[in-house]
Automatic annotation (TrEMBL):
Record-given protein name: Protein-L-isoaspartate O-methyltransferase
Organism: Streptomyces genisteinicus
EC number of the protein: 2.1.1.77
Keyword S-adenosyl-L-methionine tagged: yes
SUPFAM superfamilies membership: S-adenosyl-L-methionine-dependent methyltransferases
């Protein structure tokens, strides 16, 4: 990715057009050129805020302060004292506070792992996450009121769940497609060399399904799943790569062959899902149930279900 990015700042041609476009804007890269923060796509933020359905007097907790923009919207609606926003990156929180103060908002903005919540301002009536999570962090449920609404990206979808009791919540996914950057956690970056050393086998699943109709179900069935694609000189899809944080990798080519390795044979899951979920599965058919014993996503029409992992 290094070299593919160009900074755009105030005064540059097109700056305001970008700022007012309905696009996610990358606001920070790490030393490898990988985005670590962004201002989310405005229409997606609005969809999430609508789903959050805040009411006067409610307290809101946001995981992922980023630029502070969403926190500003929430502060405008509810008042500063009702909003708590957390980011894992101290530089981002400093900048968010500057942005918020310059526009007249003073919510609580703190540095930390947002999965832990912030007891001092709890309990919260509404919880929103703007970084992708592997599951709803249990500490956030402990800091929520009964009936609280949680809106959070899980995999490549956004779940809206209602807290039904201590450590319990239930809900379903919004129909909206969504991609949020992953909640940051230690781990190794994807690498595909070891898969390419394996004996190829045949597959009947079109590899493009991984980037299309199966992308969301795969992100639930294979937590932490990342995919990438390789294209030929004409931009035609050549192969896709799949990776999960346990080091499992698969590379599938449009010629119908697959190579895979690791603790989990990822393409086996692709084939299971491809056979069990015909067509383009509707995200709203996926339901989440949280109990103190664990979290489970079920696809009601097919009866398929997956346990979500505990937070690393
Ligand atoms: C899409 S951006 C947030 C956009 C933001 N809500 C806004 O209005 O600009 C995701 C943010 O989540 C933060 N993040 C990632 N992991 C986190 C964690 N474990 N706890 C808190 N924040 C985290 C990132 O640093 C990044 O700023």
């Amino acid at each position: 990715m290094r070299g593919a990015w160009e900074p755009v700042t105030w005064g540059d041609p097109g700056y305001l057009d970008d700022v007012y476009s309905d696009a996610a804007l990358t606001t920070q890269l790490d030393e490898h050129g990988v985005p670590t923060s962004s201002s989310s796509q405005p229409s997606l933020m609005l969809t999430m805020l609508e789903a959050l359905d805040v009411r006067d007097g409610q307290r809101v907790y946001e995981l992922g302060a980023g630029t502070g923009y969403n926190a500003a919207l929430l502060s405008h609606r509810l008042g500063d004292s009702r909003v708590t926003t957390v980011d894992i990156d101290s530089g981002l929180v400093e900048a968010a506070v500057r942005h918020l103060h310059s526009t007249g908002y003073r919510p609580t903005a703190i540095v930390g792992d947002g999965a832990r919540g912030y007891l001092h301002n709890a309990p919260y009536d509404r919880i929103i996450a703007t970084a992708a999570l592997p599951m709803i962090p249990p500490p956030l449920l402990d800091q929520a009121t009964e009936g609280a609404v949680v809106v959070a990206p899980l995999g490549y979808g956004i779940v809206r769940a209602t807290v039904t009791g201590p450590g319990r919540a239930a809900g379903r996914f919004l129909g909206t497609p969504a991609y949020f950057m992953l909640r940051r956690a230690p781990g190794n970056p994807p690498q595909f060399e070891s898969a390419r050393e394996q004996q190829p086998s045949d597959t009947h699943v079109p590899v493009g399904d991984v980037l299309g109709r199966l992308r969301f179900p795969l992100s639930i069935a294979l937590p932490g799943f990342t995919s990438c694609s390789w294209r030929d000189d004409h931009g035609r899809l050549d192969a896709v790569g799949l990776w999960t944080p346990d080091g499992s990798t698969a590379v599938a080519r449009t010629t119908g062959t697959v190579q895979q390795t690791g603790p989990r044979l990822l393409w086996d899951t692709v084939e299971e899902l491809a056979d069990a979920l015909p067509g383009d599965p509707d995200r709203a058919d996926f339901h989440l149930e949280v109990t103190p014993a664990g979290q489970r996503v079920t696809h009601r029409p097919s009866g398929l279900g997956w346990e979500l992992p505990t937070l690393p």
